[in-house]
């Protein structure tokens, strides 16, 4: 096990000491200039890392807010925002003390969010709130039928009209619209919103979620957002599984302090961004980020090749009894399905400028890193939002080109078979659209599949050839599953 230069802890620290700025003899916190929503593992492995490693990182502090529960903020606040990043390579771990998060807040503290977003010094807001949290309909617009969105519209209308009340905004977009209204009132000027979620066209998705909500609530605010908020698109990449107790114990043993909130990630990291930062940004390029004029092909390369094969493994791999990405990849049948899907995805990406053969080779090495226990069950969550971006575009492009699209159809079929199995065993369906999925699963066999496909994409569900292809593949998974079980 190796310990990087940055990880050296203060000699004053001992194994019994909790991690905090005074025990760690960390530099004074940087001033808050970035507000983040979604204080999960990925933000702490990715954007916080790029900010810390930027040449001017000492000038850019992050105030991070949780999404749904206060826990992560409570734990991190007790450590003054500090935590350990464990960079887990194939042959060893490196430990780095992370200092770029300087404040951690409960996402429900909209007063703090509004104060910080309205502050003159704040230049940008980053988001890692999960795909489902954007509450978008299949056509990419804000899903106005979503009950949480409806509740936020009511709350925001009351607030806009100058009213008070006990009700508070609950969605990330609702809270951000409230905070952007505070910035508008404060007259502190333009700001950037940088989606770092695995969404196709994530800048457009963020604009649809945030701008779309403001337009409904208060057209004046919607117009201000259209004029003053720059939605920046990104392709973000660093495999960061959920932290386990083993990492907490490892840090205590290796670093000599007690850290309740370490994050484990892979050595690889990538960040491609496109858009304007009207109030400035850290020099992330000095830490390896790349700024481009056109981002769509980079997004699709990552969403299809990496995330697409992740989702394929998540469903097909679990149906075949695997638990982690590395296990699924080691299964020659799963590996062949990945190759099949990658060939289809690659055929629909430009041949120039994306270095796809090298990208695929690197993915095989990254997925094969068995020291990263990336659980398929975590990747399988919220498949209804994810497959819309990971499988549907490839299948549609292949069908339009007169090809079978079997690789992409197999991903959808594995999802259907996985959901059917969960439904038959009364297991919980971990998806924000679980109610719709369960309603579909209650239909007769055949009708259930069409209804599930319609949740992903209405046009695909109406395409007899696509339905037939997915049906055959889903039945194949079911037959194999049945044979394995008995
Ligand atoms: N983990 C990775 O390897 C990785 C890599 C690239 C991109 N991402 C993106 O980052 C997102 C978060 O990943 P993570 O690993 O940090 O997950 P995580 O589970 O550690 O954290 C998720 C964060 O999102 C918040 N959240 C969840 N549902 C929400 C909702 N409905 N409304 C508001 N906030 C909500 C949670 O409170 C938490 O702060 C992913 O969904 C993905 O879009 C993750
Ligand atoms: O984070 P999600 O849930 O959108 O997707 C699960 C994985 O595919 C994803 O986390 C990848 O590991 C990540 O996108 C790699 O950069």
Automatic annotation (TrEMBL):
Keywords in alphabetical order: Oxidoreductase
Gene3D superfamilies with a match to the protein in the record: N-(1-d-carboxylethyl)-l-norvaline Dehydrogenase, domain 2, NAD(P)-binding Rossmann-like Domain
Keyword Oxidoreductase assigned: yes
Gene Ontology molecular-function annotations: mannitol-1-phosphate 5-dehydrogenase activity
Residue ranges, annotated region (Disordered): 1-24
Catalyzed reactions: D-mannitol 1-phosphate + NAD(+) = beta-D-fructose 6-phosphate + NADH + H(+)
Domain Mannitol dehydrogenase N-terminal, residue spans: 33-285
Annotated Mannitol dehydrogenase C-terminal domain residues: 295-470
InterPro entries, alphabetized: 6-PGluconate_DH-like_C_sf (IPR008927), 6PGD_dom2 (IPR013328), Mannitol_DH (IPR000669), Mannitol_DH/Oxidoreductase (IPR050988), Mannitol_DH_C (IPR013118), Mannitol_DH_N (IPR013131), NAD(P)-bd_dom_sf (IPR036291)
Comp. bias intervals (Polar residues): 1-12
PANTHER family: MANNITOL DEHYDROGENASE 2-RELATED, MANNITOL DEHYDROGENASE DSF1-RELATED
Protein name: Oxidoreductase
